[in-house]
Design brief:
The chain has 21 helices and 18 strands. With about 600 residues, the protein is α+β, with helices and mostly antiparallel strands. α13 packs across α14.
Length: about 600
Amino acid sequence: METTELDIQVKTLPEQPGVYQYYDKDDRILYVGKAKNLKKRVSSYFNREHDSHRIGVMVKKIKNIKHIVVDSEMDALLLENNLIKKLQPRFNIMLRDDKTYPWLCIKNERFPRVFLTRQVIKDGSEYYGPYPSIRTVKTLMGLIKGLYQLRTCNYDLSKTKIEQGKYKVCLEYHLGNCKGPCEDLQDQEEYLKQIEAIRNIVKGNLKDSLKDFRDQMNNLAEEMRFEEAEKVKRKITTLEKYQSKSTVVNPKISNVDVFSVVSDEGYGYVNFMQLSHGAIIRSHTIEMKKKLDESDSELLELGITEIRQRFESKSPEIYVPFAVEAGENVRVTVPKLGDKKAIVDLSTRNAKYFRMERFKQMKIVDPDRHTNRLMAQMKEDLRLNEEPRHIECFDNSNIQGSNPVAACVVFKNGKPSKKDYRKFNIKTVEGPDDFASMEEVVYRRYRRLLEEDEPLPQLVIVDGGKGQLSSGVTALERLGLRSKVPIIGIAKRFEELFYPGDQYPLYLDKKTETLKIIQQLRNEAHRFGITFHRNKRSKSAIGTELEQIAGIGEKTSIELLQHFRSITKVKKASLKELEDVIGISKANLVYKFYHNDQNET
C-alpha cells in the first residue's frame, strides 16, 4: 500500500499533549480537537472504521494536519476552546449530536444568576464560551459554587417585590449556599463583587480572587474566628488547584506575535504564534533552507518578515528569544521570566517538535537528505575533519577470562552494515586483559584492511574509557594509521566520549542524534560480541564432556544432546537407548566411558 503524505504526518506526530487541526484540500479548517497524546489520538481517526457517518465523511476530507504542542491536557483544553471560537470549524458543531456547545451565562438581571446553557439569547446577558466539553463547564460551575454563595432561583428580585415580601428563603439558604437576597438579607453591592470575581475567574485571571480570599482568611484569623478562616483557606486551595498556571491563556498578553527559531547545518525552523485577547489564535512553523551559513538571528529576522506578510499581521509587539530587527513600527520584547517567557518557550518547543517531525518524514520520503544532514551533524558534534560515513565499533567479551572474544560492528551512513561485521577469537592474550585484547583486535582488523587494500573508516569507536582507547591508539600507531583514522572511546556509566590526549571527556546532549548513533553502535557491538561468546562457550561446554570420548565427534555430541536434552540424561541412558540414537558401535563407546567411570569410583 502506497504511503501518502497524510500517513507520514500521522506517523511523525509527537506523543505530547496538544491541539490538532484538520484541513481539507482547499486548506479550509474542518475540525479542531485536543489530545493528551497527539499521535495516539490522531491515529485513532485513521486506523479503524467509524460508527458515525459524519466522522467518516470528515476523515475522507482530511488532506492536511497541523498541531500545537502544549504543556498539559488542561492547556490543550483551553487552547482548543480558543481556536474553535476563532476558526469556527464546520465539524466541531456537526460532531456533537446536533447540539450546540455549552456556554456559561451571567444573566442580565438584579442579583444575576450564573448557570450553564446551550442557548445564547440576546437579552444583554453575558455568555462565556463556547466550551468544547460539557464536563469543562460543569467543572467551572462546581468551582464557582464552591467559592461563592449565589442564588439559583429564577425569581424576579426587583427591589419593589423584595420590599413587598413576595418571597421566602428556600433550602439553599439553610444549607449555606445562598445568602437570601430574596428577603433582602444580602446587599446587592456585595453580591455584584462576587459576580465580578467570577468574571475574572472565567477569563483566567485568578489573582484578584486569590488576594481577596487571603485577605478574608487573615482578617478572620486575627479575629480568632478560626473555623471560618479554615473554610476560606479551603477555597484558596481549590482555586489554586484550578489555576494550574496555564501558559495558553493569559489576559495580560494581547495583540502580540511570538516568534522563535531552531536550526541545523542546512535548515532553519521559525515558529509563529499569534495571541489575541490573552489566547493563542494561530500557530504556524516554516522551514527555511540556508543559502549560506546564516545565523539564527538572520533566519529569525527573515522568518518574521515572511510570516507577518503571509498572515497580514498588524500586531504592534513581538516576543522573541533574543534581540532582532523587526522594523520601526514594531516593538521587540525579549522576555526573561514569567508568562511572557513561558509563551516564547512554548513557541521554541513547537519549533523543535516541527524539526523532529521533519527529520522523521525525511527518513521516509527523502532518506538521502536525512543521511546527509545526520552525517554533517555528527561531523560537527564529534569535531571530525570529514563526515563519518563509515564507522566501526569494537567490544570485548569474556567471563573471568574464559573463551575471550571480540566483535567489530560496522555502520555505513548511520545504519548497520551487517555483512561487514567481524568476530575475533583472542589469540595472543592470556587471561582477562581488556586493554591487551582491544589492542590485538584493532591491530588485526586494520592490518587486514591494509593488506586487502580495503577502505578505512572515518571513525573508530572502542567500548570503554581511557584504558581501552589508549590500547586502540597504540594499535593504530603500530600500523602508521594514527593520523589517518580518528578514534574515540565511550564509557558506559555517564556516556562520556574520550579523545586521545584530552584530559577531560566530551559530553553530548542525551537527546542528540549523534549520541544515539554512538549508543546504537556500542549496543550492537555488545550484542554481537555476547552472542558470539555464548555460542563459543556452549560448544566448549559440549566438548568438555562428550567430545573427549575417543571416537565421538561434535556431530554425534549434538545428536545425543538434542535427543536426551542434557549430559546427565546421556549418562543415565541404557545401552539400548543409546543404540537407537547413534548406532551400536558409538553407543558402546559412550556407555563404557560413563559406566567404567562409575565402576572406578
